[in-house]
Amino acid sequence: MNAGSYGAGFGVDFRMWLPCVLLMSLLSAASAAADSKAVTTTLTTKWTDTPLLLEASEFLAEESQEKFWDFVEANQNIEGEHDDTDQAYYDLIIKKASALLSSVQLNMLKFALSLRAYSATVHSFQQIASNEPPPSDCSAFFSVHGEKTCDAGGLEALLKTASQRPKPYLFKGDHKYSGSNPDAPVVILYAEFGTADFHRLHELITSKVYDGLATYVLRHYLAKPSEKKVYLSGYGVELAIKSQEYKAKDDTQVQGAEVNATVIGENDPVDEVQGFLFGKLKTLYPELKEQLKELRKHLVESTNEMAPLKVWQMQDLSFQTAARILAAPAVDALNVMKDLSQNFPTKARSITRTVVNSEIRREIGENQKIFKGTLGLQPGDSALFINGLHIDLDTQDIFSVFEVLRSEARVMEGLRSLHIETPFIHDILKLNVQPSDSDYAVDIRNPAISWINNLETDHRYSSWPYNVQELLRPTFPGVIRQIRKNFHNLVIILDPTQEHAAELLSVAEMFYANNIPLRIGLVFVVSNEDDIDGMQDAGVALVRAYNYISDEVDSQSAFEAVISMFNRVPIGGKLSVGDVVKVLEKRFPYVEVSSVLGADSSYDSNRKEGRAYYEQTGVGPLPVVMYNGIPYQREQLDPDELETVTMQKILETTTFYQRAVYLGELASDHDVVDFIMNQPSVVPRINPRVLSTSRTYLDLSDTNNHFIDDYARFSTLDTKERSTAVANSMTYMTKKGMTSTNRHDDGYIRPVTFWVVGDFDKPSGRQLLYDAIRHMKTSNNVRLGMINNPSAAPSAETSRVARAIWAAMQTQSANNAKNFITKMAKEETAAALEKGVDIGEFAVGGMDVSLFKSAYEGPKYDFLLSHAAYCRDVLKLKKGQKAVISNGRIIGPLEEEEVFNQDDFLLLESIILKTSGERIKSKVQQFGIEDDRASDLVMKVDALLSSQPKGEARVESDFADDRHSAVKIRPKEGDVYFEVVAVVDPVTRDAQKLAPLLLVLKQLVNVNLRVFMNCQSKLSEMPLKSFYRHVLEPEVAFQVDGSFAPGPMAKFLDMPQSPLFTLNLNTPESWMVESVHTRYDLDNIYLEEVENIVAAEYELEHLLLEGHCFDVSSGQPPRGLQFTLGTASEPVIVDTIVMANLGYFQLKAAPGAWILKLRKGRSDEIYKIYSHDGTDSPAESDDIIVVLNNFKSRIIKVKVQKKPDKHNEELLSDVTEENDAGFWKSLTRGFTGGGKSEELKQEKDDVINIFSVASGHLYERFLRIMMLSVLKNTKTPVKFWFLKNYLSPTFKEFIPHMAKQYGFQYELVQYKWPRWLHQQTEKQRIIWGYKILFLDVLFPLAVDKILFVDADQIVRTDLKELRDFDLEGAPYGYTPFCESRREMDGYRFWKSGYWASHLAGRKYHISALYVVDLKKFRKIAAGDRLRGQYQGLSQDPNSLSNLDQDLPNNMIHQVPIKSLPQEWLWCETWCDDSTKRSAKTIDLCNNPMTKEPKLQAAVRIVAEWTDYDKEIKRLQTRVQEGVSQTAKTPITDPHIEL
User: Fold this and answer.
1) Total Cβ atoms within 10 A of residue 184
2) What is the pLDDT of residue 1252?
3) pLDDT, the chain, mean
4) What is the pLDDT of residue 83?
5) Three-state SS string across 139-191, please?
């Protein structure tokens, strides 16, 4: 059907025509009148429902704590304020929140409540409360330093004794009541706000806070959580079509579960079927509703026939789908894209009839060149950009997209409230104002540095080439070029009397002696007293001796002499005057030592300069080493490190010079040192405070008309309004007088605004102001304002200078005010005023003294009171503390003695200009507003943009043609909008995800949306072989009666009935989900056999905590190190083992606060935790606390260190587990109830560990029979290990009964496929991966041998024999493929081609049965090698076609395989009948020749199979009957989970 007639043809006589068509179609449809079938999927949390009110409060807490508390106060009595329906409750929450949020943020809140994004946050507090634990009879309670109560009297008593107990640890997400006294005891209230109990206790504690008696923290706690679960969204569900080559379906009938059939509503089905728009038809012809339903059903069934397409029909599917989408009206285009991509297998046939016009092809072709050039996208790739920020669809889930939307909305609204027009907002957003990570350098052209050598003039380098072009000559990588230029300068600043001096100098000597092209300079920092005697002070002696030798001989000899002096110092000792004297006497026997070293020595130059240079550059504690002026980090000063890092820097900088030479910026006649020192990163002084990247900013993104001269009014404002009021009232000093005189001269937008905060009636405050004024007088970019932070309560005596400054700024012309204030900042002025000298004496020429005096002596101190309150409440300064605020960034509080001088202001200015000031200024200039407001705007925009978390650079989005090949949706006029650009191929998995996401975005916020088609041509196979649903809703839905609608759900309606489907969930990286409560086999869904609905229910079982761990000493991951995660009362809930790949580990957790520790036993005997990052406890604390309080991924970094006495011990030594009984005990407690250690050793030898994987009911049936065959033939106790990830609920429910009946142990293990390891998409291949890739981390260290037995095997012998089989040092043993059945020769792929040459005469092994010596396996890091090889090979879709088998065979040269005797595995396909008698196990391999179904083969080949099958069925029936009788009594499950 061509796109032009899409939905056309509804003529006038339609009413008459329709019944005829209906009649005809119904006659033909009568035969196919089966009910339509559906598959639905839901995902709930394991924890119980959390109230939306509390979730909304957490959303507000992320805006600000003030808003959180306002919301809590507003909802104290919410119970009585609505009429009991869910909808009324929800509407009330939204109404209360709307008072605190803008309209965009309110939509975000609705979305967050629909996503249930804050459910995990609320539940994490519930878990923290359960650790307290709550007192039994309280529905809300106080915890005061660990003691608990829920009444007023109890609180009084506990507050009195609180100081005797340690303060509790507070988390980042805790809600602290504003105005709490930080020194008072901490009172934590656990309650559900909105209830009467909360109201009572809240009143009680707030009164204590106002009296300064407590710090109040609120944590959510539900005394009676509801029974319901939280329904989640933000995940995808795939219904993939399975190959039916080998009939792998179980024939056991499933009792249909009763399902709520109303799931499938009237309006759900897609409206368009074969060109009929049923939604429209139903509204036009309501009376024909029933007939329309029948017609629709018939049409659906006729389209759903999925006859395979020919290859030539597939070639153009991508372009044809794009053409269909582009032909639809813009409002429907996304819906069409969603429908076509998500139901592609049934739509494909009709799409092949679409004609693609040449303009679309041409434009897509042109755009693809641009996509490849600018974004690196190939045809068929996809990408999403929100406001130019790249959203990676593979790694970012909906929760991180939500974060991006929120932070973008904040910035855009901030810019909007500064009255910036919408089109300019996007220009400003694109400015990259993030602080650059470039290292700052100080100037090394200073006489205080004594240079030892000079590459350009010293004789020893004269044979080196001089031309800078030499840099461009090719050399081997890693070779350092020797050129006679001072490209590389190393300056060492040190105190000769410190211990480290000798080590650093010996490294310098090594560089010098080995002719490394490095110019080395020394700065000695020694005493700068005038009359000091070098005969008493070793440092001074060294400097004088050095100067003497430099003058007499040269600096090289002086350096050598210094080295010999240090060579005399014993290790760990310090330099003494004697060492200096001895070397001097030896080298210059004829000189009078005291004349060189004594008090009146004439060799004293540079002594004071050295210390002055060190102090002026502000480079931090001694010793300091600088490369081209850039100071090294502390940890790089270790002698070995220093050598490596310096060489690395030389190589890195060489590329910088090569570029400069190539571009002509640096020539041979230039002074290289000048060239380096003129780079923008060179500053006069390095101040770590200024350069630190953790920065705090004021929120200046508000516009109001408040000022500070009305204190009563000022004190009622909130934080944001106060900052604006201070900005509104600020008058500035600038270099050329007040800016108002230079109106409309655009040079006078001043991009840097300093506010100096201090007590100007104290010397330190005046000093800071004086330095700021001195700097301001040198720069045209700066304006300077002042905020007084008085040390005492304001009075006439204590505020003379502050009032004088204020009065002058209010009443005098700019220049006069500036000169007068400069005077005021001087000490002698303050001293004179103190003595009572009249202020008029200090007036400067041209001042209007009477006007000034009337302002100065006025009775109002409002400005002082406002300033004091502002410093206390907003800047969080103590009385009299100093700070500097530069464009809204708070630097402070500065310590009393801390130097912050003119150079620091210069550094601060240069940083602002470099990162943000200039860029914002040039944008603001385009607005054409007067300069004072413009400078204000630059300051406010800078504060807003710089306060955003550092992200990647934004991508320019106006890059491609969108006339023919893009879907465009324009934003609503006037409002702030999001710029959203998507690039997508409509027949890919990404399109299946993107379409629903874009639809939700469009409903959620105002968007300017463009979706570019990026099609692939010449497809050779079906691009999408699955149906897909993405579960996502923009807001909470309700039913007609006002109750919550059943949670979000994926619905597959009108599915074709012939194919065999398998269901997969596509969830965020850190979720571990499992299937619960479904009778159907989700691995093999065959709709023809289903009554009506297959309802799949999943549960979010764990949130994953991932991490990387390294040993600080070696820098390597500590393989085999174990971590445990738990709580104070139950320290070990889960445990894990560190992998060598990236030091990766993962732990299964849930929302709450958890303690991470090294496992008791070898791990914590050998190692201790050195540092941790990304956790929630301070870096120095012993316990690592990690709070999981959202659905996003959590990755931490842990560094460990060996204990001093354990340096030579290895974790994976041969004695590892002999003494590690604790571990084994923890495992066996599940079934055997523990045991004494003596028994453990023998018991451990005596358990056979068998691992197996299965998915789908048929393979689980085989698995049970395999277990039975093992148990019937094996005398030794057996423990089965199953991979939990893919087991059906039916299997998990039955296994405890089977364990009880046959007396074996079992354990379910699970591991989430790590995000960095190449992902498989097909379920079967994922399961194969689990068989081989994670053997070293799936099982506890105590398990030292594991047997893998395939589910479809029958065992006929005692497996103890296989466990004890001698592997002769190999980590694992496999059986080779049989060669004896000759008629199969044509199928033996390993006999020719790649495998024949790779194996080089070795055998190709089958992976159905293998034995692994885990000790050896871990010791040779086999798991890490296998994963490494897999990572390399799996990128190619054609390699590893049988992943679990090809990988170990491919690695046979690196990880050897011991071949097991042939009788260990007999399989009819490859082995002849004569060998069957001696077979120890029989495997039901697929037969590529006959394609015989598994079940049929099992009955035919294995005589005992049917008996085993019947035996298990009898047990199942008994269990079933037992369960129905004792449905009320739960069974206890005799196993534990890892």
Assistant:
1) 18
2) 92
3) 81
4) 67
5) CCEEEECCEEECCHHHHHHHHHHHHHCCCCCCCCCCEECCCCCCCCCEEEEEE
CA dist., res. 124 & res. 61, Å (int): 15
* Amino acid type, 803: R
Sheet of 147-149: strand order equals 147-149, 141-144, 186-191, 215-220, 175-176
* Strand, coil or helix: 489: strand
How far, in Å, CA of 898 to CA of 1098, rounded? 59
Report d(CA 634, CA 766) in Å as an integer: 34
Given pLDDT bands bounded at 50, 70 and 90, which one contains residue 1218?
very low
Give the residue among 1480, 1366, 1347, 1455 at the shortest CA–CA distance from 1407. Answer: 1347
Distance CA 926, CA 922 (A): 7
Q: How far is CA 583 from the centre of its chain?
A: 58
Averaged pLDDT for residues 866-878: 85
Angle between helices 1494-1501 and 1505-1525 (to 10 degrees): 120
Extract long-range pairs of 772-779: CB within 8 Å, 24+ residues apart: 772/884, 772/905, 773/733, 773/818, 773/821, 773/822, 773/825, 774/902, 775/902, 775/905, 775/906, 775/909, 776/733, 776/734, 776/735, 776/905, 777/735, 778/735, 778/906, 779/735, 779/752, 779/906, 779/909
Three-state DSSP state, 722:
helix
Output the pLDDT for position 1525: 67
User: pLDDT category, 680, cuts 50, 70, 90?
Assistant: confident
pLDDT at 1180: 65
Identify the three-state secondary structure at position 1198: strand
Tokens of 1137: 């083992």
With 0-12 / 13-18 / 19 or more C-beta atoms within 10 angstroms meaning exposed / middle / buried, residue 78 is middle
Tell me 248's DSSP state.
-
Distance CA 291, CA 286 (A): 10
Cα of first residue to Cα of last residue in the chain, in angstroms, is 56
Distance from C-alpha of 976 to C-alpha of 982, rounded to nearest angstrom? 20
CA 643 to mean position of chain CA atoms: 34
What count of other Cβ atoms lies within 10 Å of the Cβ of residue 512?
20
Provide the 3-class DSSP secondary structure of residue 1111: strand
User: With pLDDT > 70 as the criterion, what percentage of the chain qualifies?
Assistant: 89
Q: CA-CA distance, 1265 to 1191, in Å (whole number)?
A: 40
One-letter identity of residue 314: M
CA 724 centroid distance within chain = 34
Contact between residue 739 and residue 931 where contact means Cβ atoms under 8 Å apart: yes
The mean pLDDT of 494-507, rounded to a whole number, is 82
pTM of the full structure: 0.79
Rounded Cα distance, 316 and 352, in Å: 8
DSSP H or E segment with residue 624: strand 624-627
337/1176: higher pLDDT = 337
- 727-741, 828-842, 844-858: range with lowest mean pLDDT: 727-741
Q: Extract the tokens encoding 208.
A: 């204590």
pLDDT in tens, 931-985: 678 888 888 888 888 887 777 777 776 667 778 888 888 888 877 888 899 999 9
Tally of CB atoms within 10 A around 658: 15
Q: Buried (b) or exposed (e) across 354-387, using 16+ Cβ within 10 A?
A: bebeeebbebbeebbeebeeebebebbbbbbbbb
- Give the pLDDT confidence of 512-542 residue by residue, as tens digits: 888 888 899 988 888 877 777 778 788 888 8
* Residue 1538: per-residue pLDDT: 41
Tell me the CA distances in angstroms from 1111 to 513, 671, 1139, 1169, one per residue in order: 34, 45, 13, 9
Give the CA count within 13 Å in the CB-facing half-sphere of 1406: 27
Close Cβ partners of 1013 (under 8 Å, ≥ 6 residues apart): 322, 325, 326, 360, 364, 965, 966, 984, 985, 986
CA-nearest of 1370, 1350, 1339, 1135 to 1247 is 1339
- Residue 1042, helix vs strand vs coil: coil
The 3-state secondary structure of 1136-1159 reads: EECCCHHHEEEEEECCEEEEEEEC
